[in-house]
C-alpha cells in the first residue's frame, strides 16, 4: 500500500473561525476519496492546503512523501506537475480555442515537446473525454457538460498522478452529472490515478467514491463506503442521504 496523501492533526483557522481542526487522513494510490460536507465546512480549504495554495496553521501534511508546509517554491512547483486540479467552473480561457486551452499547460510545463508531440497529447486528451474533433471550438460554443469535459481533458493532458476535483458536477443536470462521474471513474481505471473529490452530489459520490469521509465543523465525523454511510444510524450522517 502506497500512501499518496498523508495528513495528521491538520489545523487551519481564519481569525476566530476554526475551519479545519485535528484532521487525520491517508489516501492510497489508485483510490478515489470523496469528501462530503456542508457549504463553508472546509472542504475546499482542505484541498487548497494539499496543493499548497493555503498554508495550514499546524499539523503534518505530506504529498508524495514531501512535507508541504515550508516546502520551497521550486520544489512545490515540481510537485504540482504531478497534481491535476479540476476547478468548479472548469476555468477555461474564453479567448482561447479548445486546442489552445489544452496546449497551454504543455507549453508552460513541458517546453521541449515537439509540435507533433503536443498534437498527439491534445488528441489523446480529447479522446479520453469523448470530444474528438472539438479542437477549434471556442468555450462560448460549449455546453456546461462539454466545458467540464474540456476542463478534465486539460487536467489529464499533463498525466497527473493525483487529481483534486472541486465540485466537478456543480451546475449540471442529473444526466450530464452522471456522465461526468462515469468519466472520472474511467480515468481512474485507465490511468490508476489517485483522486480527492469534493462534492455535494450524492450521485457523483456513489459512482466515483471508493471511500467517503464526511466533514463536520472542521473535523471528520464519519468514514466508509457509500453503502456504509448511507446505512449509518448517526442522525447527522443520515441527513446527507435523505
Descriptive tags:
242 residues; alpha/beta; six-stranded mixed sheet; 9 helices; 10 strands; single chain; four-stranded antiparallel sheet
Descriptive account of the structure:
There is one protein chain. The longest helix has 18 residues, at 174-191. The chain has helices at 43-50, 73-80, 98-109, 115-128, 144-156, 174-191, 202-208, 226-230, 235-238; strands at 3-14, 17-28, 32-37, 58-63, 66-67, 83-86, 162-166, 194-198, 211-216, 219-224. It is α/β, with parallel strands linked by helices and 242 residues long. It is 37% helix and 26% strand. Strands 6-7-8-3-9-10 form a six-stranded mixed β-sheet, with helices on both faces. It contains nine helices and ten strands.
Mean pLDDT: 89
Widest sheet, order of strands: 6-7-8-3-9-10
What's the helix-strand series? EEEHEEHEHHHEHEHEEHH
* Fraction in beta strands: 25-35%
Strand tally is 10
In percent, how helical is the residue content?
25-40%
**Which of globular, elongated, flat, extended, rod-shaped describes the shape?**
globular
Q: Give the C-alpha Rg.
A: 18 Å
Pairing-aware structural class of the strands and helices?
A: alpha/beta
Which residue ranges are poorly predicted, with pLDDT under 50 across at least 5 consecutive positions? none
How many distinct helices?
9
Distance between the termini: 34 Å
Largest beta sheet, briefly?
6 strands, mixed
Question: What's the arrangement of secondary structure elements?
Answer:
Blueprint: E1 3-14, E2 17-28, E3 32-37, H1 43-50, E4 58-63, E5 66-67, H2 73-80, E6 83-86, H3 98-109, H4 115-128, H5 144-156, E7 162-166, H6 174-191, E8 194-198, H7 202-208, E9 211-216, E10 219-224, H8 226-230, H9 235-238
Helix pairs in contact: 3-4, 4-5, 6-7
